[in-house]
């Protein structure tokens, strides 16, 4: 037994030094079933391309997390087979996969196999010693893995691609990854004429002229300044659709483009087409629900698509909160329970809490007729991020509610109104104005 534990401990210390899925802390920030569906979809789309090796590698890791060790092994071996086929003698592309295989054999107590892969990694390391390709290939796979697994990793992905591009600035694949990471982590304003994201998307398209998804991301970002760039943006959408008319990602982003223009019928038709190709996409179900809601028809379709989105991705915070609001619209007892679940998820996931407060505020205001609770949720939402789009919506709701209260009470010095006005000034950093309204609130309460 002492030899067994000594061997295992020695291997573990070597394994922890490897760059692979097992050492990238990927276990807690994604939903396995949703990720599994997206990886299987990616394999179908990229089955004839060299980069499909990455999808098989990630799928192997996800199968390991599911406890399916043989399926994990089969997918990792498939990744190795395809890498050798597509990349010939380029051992560097196998670094991450060999690391994953070493870890997998370690976990199933096949220590001799584990040692074999560790020796292979040592051989590759010696072979490429002093060449930047070792680091570039690791950063490449790490960046794409972060992009695929969760939006929480988008900033980390951006940093991986940035570092890799410093060593290989003209790599088309790295430029595409960096462009997508920038798109996810930045928000341009209408006057962002010198946007780094737009510049990087243009650079990536120059190096990947047949990538329809990049064209659509650029078109979407150009809509921020639609008065000047609408026509060129629309032309890019048409070109992208002609390039890849059956790619569900292309259809999805095209639908988003038309949704932002207010053309809901076109957007819904496109997303329904995309759903035929990817019926297990939680994102598409959620988008369809929101579009039916925006045109204020087919409430049953909204609820159906939201239910499907949540069944495919149970931690989909926004979908749970949206479903809660729709059940509130129906007067259903399910609304309260769903909002409780949405708040719990938002706190656990550490995201979308502001959106849940905003939606719950609407629920309390319009369907529960509870003005104090509505005020409370809009105030909480505003406090979280005053300058965000949702923060401004919360502020607008508070101001509208105050105006109605003043009109009803015929008193601008109402204690609740003064307190909320003081709060709005406080979160904006306007201390003197906040103190003035808080004093008026106190005077009203003392009367």
TrEMBL record:
GO biological process: defense response to virus; innate immune response
Superkingdom of the organism of origin: Eukaryota
One GO CC term, this protein: cytosol
Endpoints of the signal sequence: none
Gene3D superfamilies given in the database record: Tetratricopeptide repeat domain (1.25.40.10)
TPR repeat start and end residues: 53-86, 248-281
Sorted UniProt keywords: Immunity, Innate immunity, Repeat, TPR repeat
Homology family: Belongs to the IFIT family.
Protein name: Uncharacterized LOC107712133
Species assigned in the record: Sinocyclocheilus rhinocerous
Recorded name of the encoding gene: LOC107712133
């Amino acid at each position: 037994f002492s030899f067994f534990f000594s061997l295992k401990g020695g291997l573990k210390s070597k394994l922890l030094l490897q760059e692979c899925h097992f050492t990238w802390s990927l276990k807690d920030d994604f939903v396995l079933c949703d990720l599994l569906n997206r990886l299987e979809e990616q394999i179908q789309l990229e089955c004839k391309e060299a980069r499909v090796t990455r999808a098989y590698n990630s799928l192997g890791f996800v199968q390991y997390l599911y406890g399916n060790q043989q399926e994990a092994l089969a997918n990792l071996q498939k990744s190795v087979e395809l890498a050798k086929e597509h990349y010939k003698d380029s051992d560097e592309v196998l670094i991450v996969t060999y690391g994953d295989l070493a870890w997998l054999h370690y976990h199933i107590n096949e220590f001799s196999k584990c040692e074999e892969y560790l020796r292979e990694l040592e051989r590759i390391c010696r072979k490429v010693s002093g060449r930047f390709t070792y680091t570039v290939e690791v950063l490449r796979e790490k960046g794409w893995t972060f992009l695929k697994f969760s939006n929480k990793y988008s900033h980390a992905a951006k940093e991986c691609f940035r570092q890799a591009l410093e060593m290989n600035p003209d790599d088309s694949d790295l430029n595409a990854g960096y462009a997508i990471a920038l798109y996810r982590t930045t928000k341009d304003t209408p006057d962002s004429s010198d946007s780094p994201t737009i510049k990087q998307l243009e650079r990536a398209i120059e190096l990947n002229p047949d990538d329809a998804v990049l064209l659509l991301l650029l078109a979407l970002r150009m809509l921020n300044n639609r008065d000047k760039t609408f026509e060129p943006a629309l032309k890019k959408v048409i070109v992208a659709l002609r390039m890849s008319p059956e790619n569900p990602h292309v259809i999805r982003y095209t639908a988003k483009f038309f949704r932002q223009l207010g053309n809901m019928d076109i957007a819904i038709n496109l997303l329904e087409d995309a759903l035929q190709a990817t019926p297990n996409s939680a994102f598409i179900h959620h988008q369809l629900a929101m579009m039916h809601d925006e045109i204020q028809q087919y409430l049953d379709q909204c609820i159906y698509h939201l239910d499907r989105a949540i069944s495919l991705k149970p931690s989909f915070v926004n979908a749970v909160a949206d479903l809660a609001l729709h059940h509130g619209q129906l007067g259903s007892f399910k609304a309260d329970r769903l909002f409780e679940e949405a708040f719990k998820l938002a706190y656990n996931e550490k995201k979308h809490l502001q959106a849940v407060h905003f939606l719950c505020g609407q629920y309390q205001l319009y369907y529960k007729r509870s003005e104090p609770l509505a005020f409370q949720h809009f105030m909480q939402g505003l406090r979280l991020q005053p300058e965000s789009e949702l923060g401004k919506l919360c502020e607008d709701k508070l101001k509208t509610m105050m105006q109605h209260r003043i009109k009803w009470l015929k008193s601008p010095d109402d204690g609740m109104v003064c307190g909320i006005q003081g709060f709005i000034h406080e979160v904006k950093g306007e201390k003197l104005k906040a103190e003035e309204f808080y004093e008026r609130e106190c005077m009203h309460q003392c009367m």
